[in-house]
Protein 1
Amino acid sequence: MKQLFACAALAIGSLVAFSPLSAVAQVRQPAGYFVMQEVGSQNIKDVKLASPAFTGIVIRERWSSLNPAPGVYNWKFLDAQTARARRLGKAYILAIYTGNNSPLWLGVPLFKSAPLPWDSKMLSAHGQMVAMLGQRYGRDGNLVGVELSGPTRGPAGSLEMHLADGLLQHPSYRPENVALAWMQCVNQYGAAFPQCGLISDGGIAPGGKDGSITQAVFNHLYQTYPMQANVSHCALKANTQESAPHHAIVVAMARRGCRVGFEMVGPSVAGVNGEGGPVARFGGDFDSALAIANRAGASWLKIYQGDEFNAMD
């Protein structure tokens, strides 16, 4: 099995890192390969998840589905998926999609189908949701990481910090307001999940070559939660330019001692179950993309189901 080695020399499959901040505190951290599951739907069969290639699974759900009305929570999907991970002896990462996946009952102004990143009502409701999420899953020994959600965008929602097209021209836009909104959400997760990794999916904000918002949030995450912080980007491929801003900002954090990982772009095998054999991954093969991750000091990768074949080679 192909391995990842982080700058802290954590090998694939190592799920717990000791925190020197407390004699009894332990922080569970992601390490190895995590298979990506469809948002809000089980599209990974048990036989696939049970593969030794995968340390665990990324369980993804929409805020609107999890919290369909004020004070109302639907735990059915997450309960079933977390129980499945425990049954199969797998670690898991939780990811709650916000932005254009936020509940409409918030009743807040929308920009490109998502609440404004600095909307105080959205941020307050988001904090309540995160607190409930932490109460239910924060002490689960199989949970090794939570992805940081909150002031994300629409209409192409993700967990990255990319700003919606045109947001910079909004009369209320201030870069510091976006950064502070993200920091507030980082603190919400930090309070709700004190014993597992906190993962920022990064992305360059406000955009272009200007990553000042992203850097401010990364700095806050690492300085405030140094034993939990993980930073990432979601565009690893064989021809990723290692000098590109979205990659260089993550590498720079790794050099400071922060744990890092990446999401790989799309499947790299043809056919529903890989029966078509390997295909090029944006200018190269899986090994080329993996080499970039290793040079960056990655501890973990989020990969798609077809990559089981590559990870096992």
Protein 2
Amino acid sequence: MKRLTRTVAAAALAAALTLVSACSSGSDSSDAKGGGGTALEKVTYLTSFGNFGRDSYAWVAKDKGFFKEAGFDVEIKPGQGTGAVIQTVVGGQANFGVIDLTGGLLQVGNGQAKDFVAVAAIQQRTMAAIVSVEGKNIASPKDLEGKKLADAPGSVVRNLFPTYAKLAGVDAAKVTWVNGEPATLMGTLASGQVDGIGQFVVGQPTVAAVTKKTPVVLPYSNVMQDLYGNALITSSKTAKEKPEMVKRFTAALLKGLEYSLANPQEAADILKKNVDATVPAAAAAELQLMAGYVRSSNSGTAIGTLDSGRVAKAIAILQGAGSLKQNITPDQVIDFNLAPKA
């Protein structure tokens, strides 16, 4: 971790803070037809959250021609978190997007969203975490009591915090949350306005670069081991009417994910080529940290798999913590017929 921190410590502060809307230039949209002369199908895809290294695999799939080979002309747009991505996909403004799967369960179980399905896992374990820095007297979950944390109101980290707090023995009523914009969260932590922020564990290198301090990370996965991380979603309508199209897109995206994990620096450079604010060292470091979350003992060597039993356990965890207003089943949120098999 120290090595990674040193690697990115020289990254520019302004660049690390900026979330830039991505343009759609790339090798698979340079013409309107695929290699076989067939017209490419135009698709809009949303990243999970901005254009950090953790989402660079979509740009890799575009740049390396994986989307084009599958018959797609893909426009990549930066997502703004689980709730917003679901809304945009269900509303028809995007065909696919990436959300935190636990956040999706919370949305469905609390009547805040419907008409979408997950079709592949990006990470087999949740990457949600509270991130602080040395000097804030935070070393364990209990230390969060009396502290001020910042995150966007719709963030899965914030929405899942009551469940995390209950399981970790934290009195959530003694923790103060303030609203923060995604682009400025790390700057808020760096300036000392808050004691911690909602963040994914892979954000450690960028936090180190921005704050110039050693990050202190409290991963939610330490107390909630059955929760998945991000997942690819589409609308229920698309899944029902175009299942083969969904499978082709999923396979191309996961090919980009696998390539990115094997070639993190190249993936970071591809992201930089498309998103100018990218700090390549931080993006590559994020991918290196993310690699351990993409595969698990349950999925073996396969990428993207979703297991009904594990999803049921995740639902049980949320129900046990009182985080769901209504009962839900895995099939309400996952289309297991379209998901990759272990």
Protein 3
Amino acid sequence: MSIFFTILGIIIVAFIALYVLFPRTLFRFFRNALRRKGKLTEKSIEVGDMTWPYLEGGSPDAEALVLLHGFGGDKDNWAMYAPEIVGKYRLIAPDLPGFGENVRDADRDYDMATQASRVRDFLDALGIEKCHIGGNSMGGFISLRFALDYPERLLSMTLFNNAGVTGANESRLQKEAQDGKNPLEIHSPEDVKRMLAFVAHKPMKVPGQFRKIFYEDFAVHRDLLDKIFWNLVEDSTGKPLNDRLDQVKAPTLIIWGRHDQLIDVSCVDVLKNGIPDAESVVFEDVGHVPMIEKPKDTAKHHLEFLAKH
């Protein structure tokens, strides 16, 4: 028994030392643990002059389900969701250009039509002719644009609190953006808590050293992220897709959190009434990222929908 406690003590001390001295190492440890739980493997592929990193899980012979992250996110936004999915589908979650470990070049264009065409090129490189697509927030906007521009490539589409349409009510983000403010901008490690509370209805507590990592990564790419944010706002509010929704041919599921402060839940009615035969589910006590806030419940509805298509 004394040997057990000695070993346990050494492990605890090692973790504390890593947290204090090498927080990125510990952060990667937990990130990789989530990937292993989701049976995800990190891969990359050359797409034109870009290298696309992505996570993949599930049988290579299964139908492909491509999931696109939102603004400020990356491929690991889907790691908590993956355990519910990989048993039945080939899950593919890339870093979109401008984010994660993909190309982060401020001289490139990052409007939604361009990003959708890049996703098409990514699928071509993987040899995927048809897939199920899904996206959260900005990734949902890109998915919706993809469905309009490349309808022959889709089996179905799932929209998780997607941007790209305007609802009857303005969100807090819309109001602040109209005043020239970017509420997703991070100004300090402590500010990460404010941003997480803005995005999730019941945000997970993130240790201080990890908040520092989030801030440092944001600060390095601040100018690029600011550019992409305002491109997204311009596309969402200046050129929303409300009037084109009836052109969507892919079977569509809309998933939303009622307490979303970024994109108001009134957008659900716009999407459901506009997209032919669309289905929808709205979760109570959930904010902008249902696949993270309620992964099991979200996956249940998602899988039931996918099984029909």
